[in-house]
Amino acid sequence: MPGPGPAGGGMSSSALESMLARLYTDEAFLKAFLEDPGAALHRAGLDETDRASLLAIDRDDLLLAAESYSAKRLSRRPGGAG
Amino acid sequence: MGDRFGLLWRPALAAGILANLDRIDVVELIAEDHFRASRAGLRALRTLAAQVPLLLHGVSLGAASTVPVEIRRLDNLARLAEAIGVAGWSEHLAFVRGGGVEIGHLAAPPRSQASIEGACRNLERATRIVGTAPAVENIATLVEPPGSTLDEPDWITAIVRGAGAGLLLDLHNLYANAVNFGADPFAMLRRLPLDRVASVHLGGGRWVDRPNGRRRLIDDHLHDVPPEAFDLLGELGRLTPRGLTVVIERDDHFPPFPRLLQQLDEARECLAQARRAAA
User: Which of B19, B68, B84, B234 is surrounded by the most beta carbons within 10 Å?
Assistant: First the structure.
């Protein structure tokens, strides 16, 4: 079951949502993150908790999710339900 | 109210739905598909609503977020709901944008106290503007959301209880998250606030093999409802006596319409058996 990640959360959700949105949609940034997460996040302006959370993300799952979102955007199916 | 069974409206399914309203109790519409409907289009939907209960299903609010939902999106929903005369509406426990970027689909936010509070604020705003409370739906995710301090059942329960919302339980999403992250889907089901479940989604997906040797189930709504989702429906029927509205979602790659009707019949029989067993 999807369980708690590394310590964190709290008030940092907004910054994490923004960073996830970028990883899911910005191919060049995703590639940079997958190659060197620490360097990609270096100038992202995240606090240490958010940074640690993102560094702990499963990179293969992240890649699959980004590919899935990209395919859904390209399919242009109106109102794909969730 | 007893159990009801229906389909998600798609133009490709329109003829089949209209010809089989004696076997379809309810129809669900993706709200965003109709925000720009012409007057004739709205008239057609009102006519449909006079024949079968219509439910609106939103996909773009981003209700489970620390970012407030946009008023204009809620205004669109309110106008459409009133123009058609819908029987209810729903949205997802997801975020869909961040930092000015549109993801284009539903994403799981960090499961934290902050997103719980954000979701409750957003659902309160949505209820006030649309006039009725939405049911909220669990989503499928391929990523365990970073920054999470709660697991999925606890997070969903906190939002549903905190907002006083109904839960639209997508059993394929539940199944996909469970198998992708090593959980028992039946145990996960039992930890949800089942007293708040009034409606159910059933969908399908496909397995993909990853280069690292793992397999992942992608909820794509392009395939038949798998037996495991029907098994979960049966378990849900045994656990809750409440009447359920069950909708099968199919976005594309449509099978012949009789196949969809057959899946509706399977859902109907599955719940009927569960009801008999629980009696």
Answer: B84
Nearest-Cα distance to chain A for B37, in Å, is 13
pLDDT tens digits along A38-77:
999 988 888 999 999 999 999 999 999 999 999 888 775 5
Q: Which residues of A touch B105 (CB under 8 A)?
A: 68-69, 72-73, 80, 82
Interface size, chain A vs chain B, as Cβ–Cβ contacts under 8 Å = 194
CA angle, A16 as apex, A11 and A20 as ends, to 5°? 160
Q: What CATH number does domain B4-278 carry, 1.10.8.60, 2.40.37.10, 3.20.20.150, 3.40.50.720?
A: 3.20.20.150
| Number of domains composing chain A | 1
**DSSP H helix total and E strand total for chain B:** 9, 12
Indicate if the pLDDT at residue B277 is higher than 60: yes
The nearest CA of chain B is from the CA of A8 a distance in Å of 5
The whole-model pTM stands at 0.94
Q: Which two tokens stand for residue B46?
A: 């009102």
CA distance B233 to B239: 10
Q: What is the mean pLDDT of residues B62-87?
A: 96
